[in-house]
Amino acid sequence: MNNLLANVDWYEIWLASFETLMMLGGSLLFTVVLGLPLGVLLFLTGPKQMFDQKALYSVLSLITNILRSLPFIILLIVMIPFTVMITGTSLGVAGAIPPLVVGATPFFARLVETALREVDRGIIEATQAMGATTKQIIISALLPEARPGILAATTVTAITLVSYTAMAGVVGAGGLGDLAIRFGYQRFQTDVMVVTVVLLLVLVQLLQMVGDRLVVHYSRK
Amino acid sequence: MIEFFQVNKAYQLGKKSITALHTTDLQIPTGQIYGLIGHSGAGKSTLMRLINRLEEPSAGRIEVDGLDITQLDASGLRSFRRKVGMIFQHFNLLTSRSVADNVALPLRLAGELSKSEINKKVSDLLARVGLENHAKKYPAQLSGGEKQRVGIARALATDPSILLCDEATSALDPQTTGQVLELLAEINRDLGLTLVLITHEMDVVRRICDQVAVMDGGVIVEQGQVADVFLHPQHPTTKRFVYEAEQVNEDEQVQNLAEVEGRILRLTFQGQATYEPLLARVAYQTAIEFSIISGRIDRIQNAPYGQLTVAFKGEKLEEAMQMLAAAEVHLDVVRYEEGHHE
User: Fold this and answer.
1) Is residue B271 within 8 Å of B303, Cβ to Cβ?
2) How many CB atoms lie within 10 A of CB A214?
3) Which residues form the signal peptide (chain B) (predicted)?
4) Among A73, B174, B216, B248, which is most exposed with the fewest C-beta within 10 angstroms?
5) Domain assignment present for B340
6) B160 touches chain A (CB under 8 A)
7) Which of B54, B90, B109 sits opposite A140 (nearest CB)?
8) Is the pLDDT score of A6 beyond 80?
9) Do residues B232 and B326 both lie within one domain?
């Protein structure tokens, strides 16, 4: 066993796993905090919705599309000056979170917009007929009704973020991806590569499982 | 009283303007069950949604109990809407909330009652619609009829004075439809609510409405007391709805009539006259012969009525008609006998 995994430094692995989880947790938190309102705004200002604002919707839509079409590896590099401005460093976990958030937020916002569009219009109409304010409609009807869809969107986003964290390793972010590249790829330590890949796989599986459970739990249809 | 003064609604679809409701005057008296019947696209849904301003009128004025609702600002409109309950064809319940939470929602949004007051009210409302044992269930666990009952309880939560029913029974089977209509009639009776009811089934109108307006192409083509409109329809659209409800096949009827001789009359009996042996008496006294071609005896709301198409033959036809008219039977001549001269 030890011979098979001769190059694996378990302390390094543990450290890298911890960094990956930190990057994932931090960036997912900010992505949801920023992406959820953006998704709601995209939905509300969309065509034939409650606040149909063609100009605003077009601008928001364009920005999200541009950010989404930018390959993440390019975004990582383009973002470096901004990242330094915000966190003081472009390295480590702190240096990885801003590009991860910028990369994932437009993606998540679009998924939220789609989830909100799935809500039956009749439910919005019924809530309006009760004399609800727009804020009440969003908080009491739209978001709870779209909750399974938003949870599914969060799961997909989290998994996308796992693969983004691996890429962030290229620019010195640390984490399992970094380990895989530095040891597994550049030093031909196949055993390190295998271990990191297995760990990433387990992480993705876990995220998907938890996400699916939550979606089922909150689906009343 | 709900009053429409010269109300009109047009949509802008690209560069085209589509009129959903042509200029309309309308009065719906307080405490009535007012039916709006029409095919889809006839404008009935638009008309109903103007009452709680889910649709904004393009022109005209709408007053509810003397209050011009077209002038209300956003917060005025919200408090007005709490006085207008609404139920829907597809129930529109929140799937993420339990039955009790759905009923509580309008009260929570209004924010005027404490939690314990809301709970008390919700259990009263669920008892009224017969769902006291389903409070903790989710809408997906209920049948269609039960879902509509939840919808009704929810609509009544804020003690409205008007209840708008948008095809409330169209998604339900006939038996459940009957139960829901009974519940609505009971609510109208007990709480004195004004009900405005959209439907495409004349049978729904016949069973619970006091008055009815028939709509076609964004225009009210006929309106009045249900018995009058139902028994003596004037407009072609109305006739079609009535025949549909009575399952009369017009072509078949014309064929049937061609095969009988004599004068053909449509007799309409209402109230007590429905159960009198009038035809036999008239035939005996005037020695006319009659044969019944088609007929129906039923109820409008709770009043019995009968409508028979009868062929008469004999010398004393005019006398027979006078006797029938004297017994308050409404007569329409469908066809005169051969050789008749006015």
Assistant:
1) yes
2) 16
3) none
4) B174
5) no
6) no
7) B109
8) no
9) no
Residue A126 touches chain B, beta carbons under 8 Å: yes
Say which residues have a Cβ less than 8 Å from residue B243's Cβ, sequence separation at least 6. B249, B250
Whether A140 and chain B come into contact, CB under 8 Å, resolves to yes
Q: Please choose, from the candidates B108, B96, B89, B158, the residue with its C-alpha nearest in 3D space to the C-alpha of residue A122.
A: B89
Q: Which residues of A touch B164 (CB under 8 A)?
A: 129
- Residue B106, chain A, CB below 8 Å: the answer is yes
Number of domains observed in the structure of chain B:
2
Q: Same structural domain for residues B156 and B273?
A: no
- Give me the interface pTM, i.e. the ipTM: 0.84
Interfacial B residues in 36-55 facing A (CB < 8 Å): 52, 54
Q: Is residue B341 part of a domain?
A: no
CATH 3.40.190.290 applies to domain A10-218:
no
Same domain, B223 and B275: no
B161 touches chain A (CB under 8 A): no
Query: Which residue from A minimizes the CA distance to B111?
Result: A132
Cβ pair A131:B77 closer than 8 A: yes
Q: Does A133 touch chain B (CB under 8 A)?
A: yes
**Residue B142's closest chain A neighbor by CA?**
A221
- Considering only CB atoms, A131 lies closest to which of B88, B96, B110, namely B110
Computed on alpha carbons and rounded to an integer, the radius of gyration of chain A in Å comes to 20
Q: Do B94 and A129 touch (CB under 8 A)?
A: no
Q: Are residues B236 and B256 in the same domain?
A: no
Q: Which pLDDT tens digit goes with each residue over B60-87?
A: 999 999 999 999 999 999 999 999 999 9
Sequence ranges of the domains in chain A:
10-218
- For residue B240, give the nearest of B264, B216, B219 by alpha carbon: B216
d(CA B27, CA B1): 7
CATH of the domain at B310: 3.30.70.260
Q: Which of B228, B244, B260 is the last residue of a domain?
A: B244
Give the model's confidence band at B145: pLDDT under 50 very low, under 70 low, under 90 confident, else very high: very high
- Considering the domain boundaries, does residue B109 fall inside one? yes
Which amino acid makes up residue B110?
A
Find all residues with CB under 8 Å of B60, minimum gap 6, and list them.
Answer: B4, B5, B6, B7, B8, B23, B24, B70
> Given a cut of 70, is residue A221 above it in pLDDT?
no
Residue B342 in domain:
no
